[in-house]
Amino acid sequence: MFAKLFAESGLSLDRLRALLEVGAGGSIVKAANGDPVRQSQYSRQIKELEDFFRTRLIERQGKGTRLTASGKELARISRFFLLGLSNFQRGCLAEEQTFRIGASATFIRQFLLPLLSRPSLRKGGASYASEIAPDKEIERRLHDLTLDFGVVGTELLSRPLQTKLLGEWKLELWVPKALRLGEARAAEAFDQRRLPLALARELKGGDVLPLAEPEACLVCDSFMESRAALEAREIAALLPGFLAPGKTARSFIRVHIPKLDSRIFHFYLAWNPRLLRLNPHAVRRRDWLAESLSKRMVGSPVC
Fold it and tell me: Would you say 100 and 286 are in contact if contact means Cβ atoms under 8 Å apart?
């Protein structure tokens, strides 16, 4: 069945790993960490793979390189194969496995870290690593199998990725009383884009939430930064219901905006079913994450 694959030299696990590292690094120089010896080795190994398969695997892009269509396909096959071997090795050696989870900074801080910090998890035979990433990057890395699980805001991911709903949430507009606006005037100022507003990049959908003028808007990386800006009591903020002001709520007013109050957002756990076929233990981790995170979201206010 595999006679032709082994009829000539040029194919090896080490060469396939070189292709994966160069593809991930974006250039041979970055993949080799600037080591000229390794650069030469990577160049030679990829050239040998290209000679073996009779096709181009990498091409120049600016100052770096990128995988060709054939390179991407070979990288996908290689990653799947090497991950299977790695899981088999860990099982034979009874080694602990680390599951990588991608999500927004706010979701990680609010829901994921409290869950993964439980003392009981230290005896579970697995560890976890969280990584901040936007939805598009999570989707790409789930396909690449460089993430095991992800938390995204949509269930419409490309095949074969699958999702499970974790919970829903709404946005709330909070305005410091120090601005002396009152709810009606604050709503009017928001509608006219005159309200000093902290807006998180984690929130997507400019068609629903048009940005204020740049000089009147503070753009933050996460909702947590928006809440910190709000707590300075000089700027309003759009926050998820689960991050609404707590003990300091008396210093702010909740402004009801119909187009915001009617919009429901969601969190979904996402995974690649190929991972589950490679690593049956991941099925149990997926089910545990889905159940535990759903319970944590149920305990948080939606609106």
Answer: no
